[in-house]
Amino acid sequence: MDQLKLNVSLLRRRVPNLTSAARSVGLRPATVSNLCTGKIPIARAEVRTLVALASLAECSVDELLIKGSEGEMIETGIKVLDLFAPLTKGGTIGFVARPGMGQLVVLSEVLYRLKAQGYATVFLVPEEASVGISDVIDVVEKVCHSTEEVSNYILAEGKKREVVLAADRSIVLSGEIFTLQEHFGSAGIESVTTLLVDPRGEVVDEDEPYGPLDTLWQFDAELTARKMFPAIQPVISTSVVLEGSHLEQTHMVIQQRARKLLRRYRELRFLVQENGLERLPANDVEIYKRGLRLEAYFTQPFFVAEEYTKKKGETVSLEQTLKDVAKLLDGGADGWETDQLLYIGSIEGRE
């Protein structure tokens, strides 16, 4: 059971409005969402929940469950994403942010990097113009203005190479995303990675803004205010790839250690702001300072922002990120000032 997960793609195709459908059969939408993202392991799911979902999808329970190895990650070279909430290949990724938090910059950067890896990158332009949309248009391979145009392009390209589709969440509200996924599935194109954004920022105030997701990237207001970009919240952001069977053991251990330290650090920030660092016990001072360094390390120069930041974009392999984070956690960088870690790539060779 530990190696099983829900067949989220099947659920989306068979049950377009999964949130409402789940509620109609007595299931909590949050429970269904957590099962889809892996926050709740299949081993902890009630049998009646799985039976109800299978009934909604008009399939057997066996069809509803797939081997965990299906959750393959796409390495982006963006440290905070690859470590804490890996991009799920062929999955649906949701950006949760208010306007001005940099979500369109992150979207542009991810598309830029995936295009460089050989992915076909497609952007469905939203009807309502938003600041930053033009930057996304500049980096993608194909710009579409209708779902029909998207469908035609992906049906032509999808059999030759992997596809990444970026779109406004309006296609979720209209149900068009499910129609597209049905077309792709019928044509034998299963691996379309979909990035969903909401430039208006309405998703922040909703419990189920996109329905079940494979990867959730939650942006953080405090990190944004302090200009710590990309302002991804490492404690809340998550991915189905985080299920233990999908990650190398080293990745899982380091990620869990980093998340635990950052969670405690964020609690200590309030105490330090209120009472000062000198009031903390020695052990907490160490945690606080290492948290500061980790937080700084996860800032990163982006290629799409070079013109504005005057800093060269940096790519850091997952392997190197794991080495760097382990060093920071174990105290190997305790002699570093926080400012030395801001907006760099790897720490290797910088001593």
TrEMBL record:
<keyword id="KW-0139">CF(1)</keyword>
<comment type="similarity">
    <text>Belongs to the ATPase alpha/beta chains family.</text>
</comment>
<protein>
    <submittedName>
        <fullName>F0F1 ATP synthase subunit beta</fullName>
    </submittedName>
</protein>
<keyword id="KW-0813">Transport</keyword>
<keyword id="KW-0067">ATP-binding</keyword>
<dbReference type="InterPro" id="IPR027417">
    <property type="entry name" value="P-loop_NTPase"/>
</dbReference>
<keyword id="KW-0547">Nucleotide-binding</keyword>
<dbReference type="InterPro" id="IPR024034">
    <property type="entry name" value="ATPase_F1/V1_b/a_C"/>
</dbReference>
<keyword id="KW-0406">Ion transport</keyword>
<dbReference type="InterPro" id="IPR050053">
    <property type="entry name" value="ATPase_alpha/beta_chains"/>
</dbReference>
<keyword id="KW-1278">Translocase</keyword>
<keyword id="KW-0066">ATP synthesis</keyword>
<keyword id="KW-0472">Membrane</keyword>
